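ugh ok so i messed up the first submission bc i forgot one of the chains. this is the corrected input, ALL of the components this time, i swear. 454 residues overall. if the numbers dont match what u have on ur side tell me asap before i send this to the collaborators (the ones from the other lab, u know who)
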Amino acid sequence: MRTHVITHGCQMNEYDTLTIQSELVAGGHDLVDHPSDAELILLNTCAVRGKPVEKVVSILGDLRKERRAGRDVVIGLMGCLAQLDEGRDLADKFGVDLLVGPGAITDIVPAIEALEQARGSRGREPRVRVDRLAFRGDLVDHLTPPPPPGTLTGYLTIMRGCDHHCTYCIVPQTRGPEVSRPLAAIVHEAEAMRAQGVDEVVLLGQNVNSYGRDDPGLPSFAELLRAVAAVGFPRVKFTTSHPMNFTSDVIDAIAETANVCDYVHLPVQSGSDRVLRRMAREYRRERYLDIVRELRERVPDVVLTTDIIVGFPGETEEDFEQTLSLYDEARFDAAYMFAYSARPGTPAHARFEDLPREIKSERLGRLVERQKHWSLEGNRRFEGREVRVLVKELGRDGAHAVGHSDQHHTVLVPAVQVKRMGLHAVRVEHATPHALYGGVVGAASDGVALPLAS
Ligand code: 5AD
Ligand code: SF4
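and heres the new structure output, hopefully the right one now
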C-alpha cells in the first residue's frame, strides 16, 4: 500500500517512525511524501499532554470528513495514544482501522496483512489491534537501519520504558517498564550510522541514566557513553536524564571524553519540595542543585536545560516562587516549560484537583520571562568565542543557515558563508535568548573534529 506516516511528539517517536518505515518498505509497501497520495495513513502519536492529543483528534476529524466524501483510505493509530483507553475510544469514534502500541511497532506489517485478510473474508470494516508492552527479546534486539544518506544527526534508542512513577506522567503506562537494549545492538547501529556519514548521534531513552540497571550483564550508562564515543562520532549527545539516576560517573564521562558534548538536559519539573513530593519525583530541590553545582564545576562550559511543569495540582504561589528561585540558582540555558495537563489514567488525575487555567497560564508567562533572562545570560557567555556548529538547513528567512553548537545552542550564520551542510567553526558575534548569531571561520570536512578555541 502507498503509506504516509505522520509523527508527533518526542525524538523517541521520530526514531520509532524510522523503524516503522523500514518495516513497511521491507514488507513491500511504498512510502509517499504527501498524505493525500496515501492509501494507508499511520499516525505515530504522543499522549503526554492534552495538546498533542487534540492534534490527533483534529487530523482524525479531517480524515473522517474525507472518507465521508468518498476517499478510500486505511487509518492506523500508533504510538503512545494507541496504548491507552483514550486512544481506543478515539479509534471507535473515528473509525480507525489499526491500533498498534509503541511496544508492537515491528508488528505493523502483519497487522496490515491481518486487516486486509479480515476485510476480504468478512466484507465489513474490521479493526486490528496489537499492543504489547513486553518488549524484551524482539523490539530491543531489533536493528533499526541507518537513516538516509545525508542525515547529519542520528537518533539511537538505548532503552525503552520508564520505572519511575511520576504522578502526572502517562509514559509508564504507554511504554511499560525500563528495558535496556543489548550493548552489541547499540554499537552496531552506531557504527552503521557513522559509516553513513552521521556526525552527531543522540542516545535516547525516557531515562538514559538507568541504562543497564535491568540486566547485570550490561555496562552502566557512563560506560555505554564511552563505548559509543569510541565509535568516532564528532559528537555524542543523550536525552533524557533523571536527577535520581544522574551519577558522578556520567559527569566524569562528559568531562573526560572530548566528543561527549557539554550539554545536559535534566528535567527538574518543580523547585518546591512539597510539589516534588506530590509529583513523586524521588529527589528534593537541594539534591538537584548539588548535581548542577558538580556539573558546572567539572564541566565549566556545560549548557544545562530542563523541563518544568507549572500549575501542578495544589501548587501555591509560594511553591511557584520556589521554582523561580531555583531558576536563579540553576541558571538554566533553556527550558521546556509546560502548564500541567491532567492526563486520564495518571495518579495525579485520579487524586488531585486541577488548578484554574488562568493561574496556570499566568505562572507560565512569568516563568517564560524569567527563562528569557537566564537564556540570554547563558548565551552571552559565548559571545566573542568560537563554537563548532553542525549546520543542517537553510533558515526560514533564506538569509541564514541554521545549525546547533556542540553545547546544543541554535546557531545562525549568513547562508552565503555555507557551501555545504555539516560541521563549521563559527565565531559568535551576538546572542539572543533563543540563538547565537555568528560568522563561519572554517569548515570541518568529513566530520573531522575541530578544536574549540575559548
Ligand atoms: N502535564 C504537563 N507536562 C507534562 N510532562 C509530562 N507529563 C505532563 C503533564 N501531565 C512534561 C514533563 C516531561 C516532559 C516530557 O513533558 O516536563 O519532562
Ligand atoms: Fe514520566 Fe517521570 Fe518516567 Fe519521565 S521519569 S517518563 S516524567 S514517569
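quick check: Residues 445-454 have pLDDT under 50 and may be disordered. that seems consistent at least. The pocket of iron/sulfur cluster (ligand 2) is lined by residues 162, 164-166, 169, 171-172, 206-207, 242 (CB under 6 Å).
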